[in-house]
Write a structure and sequence with these properties.
By secondary structure, this protein is α/β, with parallel strands linked by helices. It has two domains: 57 residues; 182 residues, Rossmann fold. It has twelve helices and five strands. It has a five-stranded parallel sheet with strand order 2-3-4-1-5. α9 links the parallel β3 and β4. α2 packs antiparallel against α3, α7 runs antiparallel to α8 and α9 runs parallel beside α11. It is elongated. It starts with 7 loop residues before the first helix and ends with a helix. The mean pLDDT is 93.
Length: 248
């Protein structure tokens, strides 16, 4: 059992007020030189502590989101896709859909910036205080299969249920068998009206049964939950990555 903190340093350390612990003496000297009032001195200390904690929180959320690379909407090449609803995407960047626990689905061919936009929205969410997890649909299934084999499925599912925003990238690029589809359905079902999902896919909705082992019933159940509260962003055009290869 530790003794009750007595000195200012001990109390600030126990309260984990790192900025105040480091700066309360130097800032007191500054306050004396600039004739700050007691309130001004306290407000400066409090602002510094708040800024430090907020910045640390942002860095922690970005790290835990596991983005493959940081992207922003300022970097997006809006002129490249043949078709994209720019106002719709910009509205999504305001993150109202997360507050409403709604979903977003980006549909389009490869190399059109779907992952870029998904990452940018996720990054913006981290900046605004939301927890995010970025992963691919196949990685989710493979992880849950391993957890299930180890008898830890419930624990494995929690990882995908906690974040305010779950980003599932590349749905449809690889086929998913019945077992994998059932696991993915559990996540979508559990998050329904409880947390937002953002999905990128290269398949239009009418071809989604091909993703889920041609199980029309399961596909219908998945789409029913996803699209009840959702925005669909359709992106059309040629691959930007192929453009770069041609230019080389």
């Amino acid at each position: 059992m530790h003794d009750k903190p007595k000195t200012s340093e001990e109390q600030l350390n126990w309260l984990k007020l790192r900025f105040m612990l480091d700066q309360y003496r130097p800032m007191a000297d500054t306050a004396a030189k600039k004739n700050w009032s007691h309130q001004e001195y306290f407000e400066q200390l409090l602002q510094g502590e708040t800024d430090l904690r907020w910045d640390n929180g942002i860095n922690r959320r970005i790290r835990m989101a596991r983005f493959p690379v940081i992207k922003t909407m300022d970097q997006f090449q809006w002129t490249w896709p043949k078709k994209i609803n720019r106002p719709q995407v910009q509205q999504l960047c305001r993150l109202n859909f997360i507050r409403q626990k709604a979903n977003v689905i980006f549909l389009g061919g490869v190399g059109l910036g779907k992952t870029h936009m998904a990452t940018a929205i996720g990054y913006q969410a981290c900046l605004k205080g939301y927890t995010v997890l970025f992963t691919t649909a196949i990685d989710v299934i493979n992880t849950l299969l391993m957890e299930q084999a180890a008898g830890q499925l419930k624990k494995g599912l929690k990882k995908y249920l906690k974040p305010s925003l779950l980003i599932l990238d590349e749905l449809g690029y690889l086929p998913i068998d019945k077992h994998g589809a059932d696991l993915l359905f559990q996540i979508i079902s559990y998050r329904y009206e409880k947390g937002s999902i953002l999905i990128t896919s290269n398949r239009e909705y009418k071809k989604w049964p091909q993703i889920f082992n041609n199980d029309a019933t399961l596909t219908s159940a998945i789409l029913d939950r996803l699209l009840h509260h959702a925005d669909t962003v359709v992106v059309e055009g040629k691959s930007y990555r192929m453009k770069e290869q041609v230019e080389l």
